[in-house]
């Protein structure tokens, strides 16, 4: 169990997927303007990434490796993820309408979220087994949600301060992200 | 717009990742040296040019409902080609870029151009658009990489131990290692973006702005 806790802390704080590994930065800057959308996106990513990490691991281990088709990994994974996202969208819409209301618009965006695809590949490259992959995917997604919500909390306050004209919008967002990343690099050495 | 305009707009008007704020992950992650940035940019350009060409050629045959999935399959095929070619001929670079080569498939610039441009325009225009945007992206990555390399390690055009590039800083220069770290990437890109905004504002003030 201790290993899993270390893995979780490592994935959430030390090697944060957004700030240190640089995966999923487009939604990070795109949907971090308000707290509500950031929370919705964060939850949607936790849900999809955990599922996607599990399924792509199974596809790789039980289909691609026995057939000797590892070089088709990129195509296979992106198709699995795109289908999965569509499928999740339909299931959530039918079974849990309130959840769909909250996550609805974010689900299609997740197909091109490189965090999902990136974690699927990291799972394979690092040679994780199934349980570790599930834990790592979940922990990475939690790290994503944490960084996104922190960022949204800061960006909401930008409305109240005078920002130099040239820095408005994305430029100040990037510099803020840099400062959050600097704070996160204080966790290096924790694990 | 003429072919020339479609080609040159990628260099300033809509230069990614500054004007089109897309494709940030590779921009931030691989630009620790100029050469690495350029390698990433060229790999992306290759995929972008061919995916634009094929999306444009097939635009009348792809049903509207499944277009995104079809685009992704076209893009993924070219990404696999790049992945295998780089492993065979540029092993060191491919080791460094690592996970970001397969990640070209989810680079929003490529899907964005397929959806917004290539699926509505003829193959020649799409080719020009892909080449222009791709080279614009390459230039951005090269510039950002060079700035970070210059401040972070004091060299330019470093490739590997046998091709060390040039030491351009004075001898007592203390490398500013922050620039090579992840936080430095965010800050460097943010400041570069602010500079671009400043230039655009000055142009507009002079009346010479577009």
Describe the protein in words:
The complex is a heterodimer of chains A (191) and B (210). Chain A has 191 residues and is mainly alpha-helical. Chain A has two domains: 31-154, no CATH class; 161-191. Helix content of chain A is 74%, strand content 0%. Chain A is built from nine helices and no strands. In chain A, helix 8 packs across helix 9 (170-184). The model of chain A has no long low-confidence stretch (mean pLDDT 86). Chain B is mainly alpha-helical. Chain B has one domain. Chain B is built from eight helices and two strands. Chain B has helices at residues 3-8, 24-30, 34-57, 67-89, 91-97, 108-118, 123-153, 182-206; strands at residues 155-156, 166-167. Chain B has a two-stranded antiparallel ribbon. In chain B, helix 3 packs parallel to helix 6 (108-118) and helix 4 crosses helix 5 (91-97).
How many strands appear in the DSSP assignment of chain A? 0
Question: What is the averaged pLDDT score of chain B?
Answer: 85
Shape of chain B: globular
Q: How many domain units of chain A? A: 2
Q: Any idea what the radius of gyration of chain A is?
A: 17 Å
Major sheet description of chain B: 2 strands, antiparallel
Annotation field: number of helices of chain A = 9
Q: What is the CA-atom radius of gyration of chain B, in angstroms?
A: 18 Å
Apparent shape of chain A: globular
Give the DSSP E fraction of chain B (strand runs of 2 or more residues).
Answer: under 5%
H/I helix tally of chain B: 8
SSE arrangement of chain A, N to C: HHHHHHHHH
**Into which percent range does the helicity of residues of chain B fall?**
55-70%
What's the story with the biggest beta sheet of chain A?
none
Judged by helices, strands and strand pairing, the structural class of chain B is mainly alpha
């Amino acid at each position: 169990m201790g290993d899993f806790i270390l893995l979780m802390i490592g994935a959430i704080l030390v090697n944060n997927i957004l700030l240190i590994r640089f995966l999923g930065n487009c939604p990070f800057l795109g949907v971090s303007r308000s707290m509500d959308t950031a929370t919705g996106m964060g939850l949607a990513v936790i849900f999809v990434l955990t599922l996607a990490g599990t399924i792509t691991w199974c596809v790789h281990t039980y289909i691609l490796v026995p057939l000797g088709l590892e070089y088709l990994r990129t195509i296979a994974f992106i198709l699995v993820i795109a289908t999965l996202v569509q499928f999740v969208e339909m299931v959530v819409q039918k079974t849990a309408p309130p959840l769909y209301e909250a996550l609805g618009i974010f689900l299609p965006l997740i197909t091109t979220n490189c965090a999902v695809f990136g974690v699927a590949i990291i799972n394979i490259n690092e040679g994780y087994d199934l349980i570790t992959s599930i834990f790592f995917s979940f922990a990475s997604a939690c790290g994503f949600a944490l960084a996104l919500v922190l960022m949204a909390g800061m960006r909401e306050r930008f409305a109240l301060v005078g920002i130099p004209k040239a820095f408005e919008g994305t430029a100040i967002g990037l510099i803020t992200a840099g400062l959050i990343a600097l704070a996160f690099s204080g966790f290096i050495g924790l694990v | 717009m003429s072919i020339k305009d479609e080609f040159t707009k990628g260099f300033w008007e809509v230069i990614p990742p500054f004007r089109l704020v897309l494709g940030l992950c590779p921009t931030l992650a691989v630009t620790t040296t100029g050469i690495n940035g350029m390698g990433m940019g060229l790999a992306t350009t290759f995929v972008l040019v061919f995916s634009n060409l094929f999306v444009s050629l097939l635009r009348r045959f792809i049903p509207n409902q499944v277009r995104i999935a079809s685009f992704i399959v076209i893009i993924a095929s070219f990404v696999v080609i790049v992945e295998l070619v780089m492993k065979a001929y540029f092993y060191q670079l491919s080791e460094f870029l690592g996970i970001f080569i397969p990640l070209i498939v989810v680079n929003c610039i490529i899907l964005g151009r397929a959806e917004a441009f290539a699926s509505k325009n003829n193959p020649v225009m799409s080719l020009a658009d892909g080449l222009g945007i791709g080279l614009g992206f390459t230039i951005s990555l090269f510039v950002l990489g060079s700035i970070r390399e210059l401040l972070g390690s004091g060299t330019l055009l470093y490739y590997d131990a046998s091709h060390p590039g040039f030491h351009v800083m004075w001898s007592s220069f203390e490398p500013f290692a922050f620039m090579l770290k992840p936080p430095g990437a965010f800050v460097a890109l943010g400041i570069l973006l602010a500079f671009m905004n400043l230039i655009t504002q000055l142009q507009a003030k002079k009346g010479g702005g577009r």
